[in-house]
Design the sequence.
């Protein structure tokens, strides 16, 4: 389905983004890889040399970065058929223990840049009558998480934005899907948490399985994809529990590990 198309992937230097790049390349999809670490992007580009791969180095915490990425694709003369907004980060710390720079950096990467890239790249997709957008949210989007408050709120914004755009754009031929992973074995987990809970670590899914679920859901035109039976159950439970219970549960399971 994506053979001969071009996909732009943010956060492509590792984890889910890198796995999506590998799977799309295996399907014959050309790539534009975006991340902060040029050397990793270059190494991945060499690995995936069976397709056309361009590399754009950008720090999406910079409010100007999303526009710069879009303009660089124009300079390259590449038509982006598939946009994968995968870049994101978070901290497992109480809000008052984080600096405003860290808090706003999360919002800039997880929400602001995602929104700017989505708007820039979906406009020409709508004009062509075809396109795909995969926004990586999180199971955290259903849970206000004491100890990860800003991160969970940012992922809730991504989920709601994606659901709304799925309805707004479906008549235009553009598919918008929110991928909402639970725990995934990536660098993100080690960066977000100073100490990993052993039970959570056991429940983590491999990044390649999460990537495959997201791409399959995008091709199927789904609005939301939650990989893994356990995480589907977690999301379903939130429909039946009082909000205060959901918040306390999230804090005890995901937000507070002393």
Sequence:
């Amino acid at each position: 389905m994506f053979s001969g198309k071009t996909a732009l992937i943010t956060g492509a230097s590792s984890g889910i983004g890198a796995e999506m790049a590998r799977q799309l390349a295996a399907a014959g999809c050309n790539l534009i890889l975006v991340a902060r670490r040029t050397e990793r992007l270059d190494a991945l580009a060499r690995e995936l040399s069976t397709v056309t791969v361009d590399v754009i180095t950008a720090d999406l915490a910079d409010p100007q970065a999303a526009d710069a990425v879009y303009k660089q694709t124009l300079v390259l003369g590449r038509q982006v058929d598939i946009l994968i907004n995968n870049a994101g980060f978070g901290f497992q710390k109480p809000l008052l223990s984080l600096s405003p720079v860290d808090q706003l950096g999360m919002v800039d990467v997880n929400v602001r840049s995602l929104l700017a890239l989505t708007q820039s790249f979906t406009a020409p997709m709508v004009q062509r009558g075809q396109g795909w957008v995969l926004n990586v949210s999180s199971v955290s989007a259903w849970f206000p998480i004491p100890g990860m408050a800003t991160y969970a709120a940012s992922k809730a914004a991504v989920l709601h934005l994606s659901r709304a755009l799925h309805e707004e754009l479906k008549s235009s031929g553009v598919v918008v899907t929110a991928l909402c992973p639970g725990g995934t074995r990536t660098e993100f987990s080690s960066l977000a948490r100073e100490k990993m809970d052993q039970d959570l670590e056991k429940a983590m899914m491999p990044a390649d399985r999460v990537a495959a679920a997201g791409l399959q859901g995008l091709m199927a035109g789904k609005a939301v994809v939650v990989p893994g039976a356990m995480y589907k159950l977690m999301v379903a439970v939130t429909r039946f529990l009082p909000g205060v219970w959901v918040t306390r549960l999230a804090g005890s399971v995901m937000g507070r590990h002393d």
